[in-house]
Specification:
The chain is an alpha/beta fold. It contains 14 helices and eight strands. The protein binds 1,3-dihydroxyacetonephosphate. 1,3-dihydroxyacetonephosphate (13P) binds next to strand 3 and strand 8.
């Protein structure tokens, strides 16, 4: 099956009342792990690449890996998404490569660190929406600023500094026409999100619920949504790692989000931890080994296990064959005719 529009995956998820994990890909083992999990659970797939991933793997290697995944798994719909595009040009180059979805993170300037003004964010996101929709490609925007830093992208901090203002979220959705909207509710990228199990003072699920009530037709996205489970931290530390104890986003909070309009859930750190723990274990237990396959095979299996678990928890499991892929040109026609317009003033009619 050719790559599928992310918008279609999210529309189907909304109809079915489930969420779809978006898992980061940097290399062959990671896309293989995602596909192993998708096959096991019969799930639709969102694979995403950051700018750092595109640089690390080189665009063409990376994209060909995703194409191989699609060719080898014709029964599984796969959307390929640019994570945290920092400019119009980054999004344009992802679309030229064949990505079916882009995130224009206009909440930060092109340096990926400095917050922009609301007007700057609207302007660059609107420009990407016009360009992408003409080509049938999905757009995710961001309003509010996430904490943490990922692949050099992020304002740092705890994530509580720039919680999304629901009024601004509504205005942003109206003025940009994004398909999906990442909101800041206190999560941050990376392992160190919370110093204890988060409650409502640091994880603002109430803000998410308010935004969904006002924007029922815009798919919400939760970034920084690794759960950072203790067992994965323990394996890393047991075999020589030095992680400070930390808490991520509890799965039950994500499930509450899914009941309230969250359709895309970004997970990267949990997979990194699973891979690192598995590799450390092989190095520690069998220091005589030096064939990469000896440690990459268990690393891939460890990531596949985490991804399969998330696919079940997010509810996407069992939904891979619910629908036929809409060709990307047909999506472009849908945007042109206004059928896929998500702006609150239009979609509510
Ligand atoms: P985590 O660091 O929580 O996995 O978040 C990843 C992410 O949001 C990618 O955009």
């Amino acid at each position: 099956m050719p790559l599928v529009s992310m918008r279609q995956l999210l529309d189907e998820a909304a109809k079915g009342g489930y969420g779809v994990g978006a898992f980061n890909v940097n290399d062959m083992e990671q896309i293989q792990a995602i596909m192993m999990a998708a096959k096991e659970t019969n799930s639709p797939v969102i694979a995403q690449a950051s700018r750092g991933a595109r640089k690390f793997a080189e665009d063409l290697y990376l994209f060909k890996l995703i194409e191989a995944a699609a060719e080898l798994n014709p029964d599984i719909p796969i959307a390929m998404h640019q994570d945290h595009g920092n400019s119009f040009e980054t999004c344009k180059s992802a679309i030229a490569l064949g990505f079916t979805s882009v995130m224009m993170d206009g909440s930060l300037k092109e340096d990926g660190k400095t917050p922009t003004t609301f007007e700057e964010n609207v302007e660059v996101t609107r420009r990407v929406v016009d360009y992408a929709h003409e080509r049938g490609v999905t757009v995710e925007g961001e309003i509010g600023v996430l904490g943490g830093v990922e692949d050099g992208h992020g304002a740092g901090g705890t994530g509580l500094e720039h919680i999304t203002d629901p009024d601004q979220a509504v205005e942003f959705a109206e003025r940009t026409g994004v398909d999906a909207l990442a909101i800041a509710i206190g999560t941050s990228h990376g392992a160190y999100k919370f110093t204890k199990k988060p409650d409502g003072s640091v994880l603002k699920m109430d803000v998410l619920i308010q935004i969904h009530k006002r924007l029922p037709h815009t798919h919400l996205v939760m970034h920084g949504s690794s759960s950072v489970p203790k067992d994965l931290q323990d394996i890393v530390n047991q075999y020589g790692g030095h992680l400070k104890q930390t808490w991520g986003v509890p799965v039950e909070e994500i499930q509450l989000g899914i009941k309230n309009g969250v359709r895309k859930i970004n997970v990267d750190t949990d997979n990194r931890l699973a891979i690192t723990g598995a590799i450390r274990k092989v190095f520690a237990e069998t220091p005589e080994k030096f064939d990469p396959r000896d440690y990459l095979t268990p690393a891939r299996a460890a990531m596949a296990k985490v991804v399969a678990q998330r696919m079940r928890e997010f509810g996407q499991a069992g939904h891979a064959q619910d629908y036929k892929a809409i060709p990307i040109e047909e999506m472009a026609a849908g945007y042109k005719s206004g059928k896929l317009d998500t702006r609150p003033s239009v979609a509510a009619r």
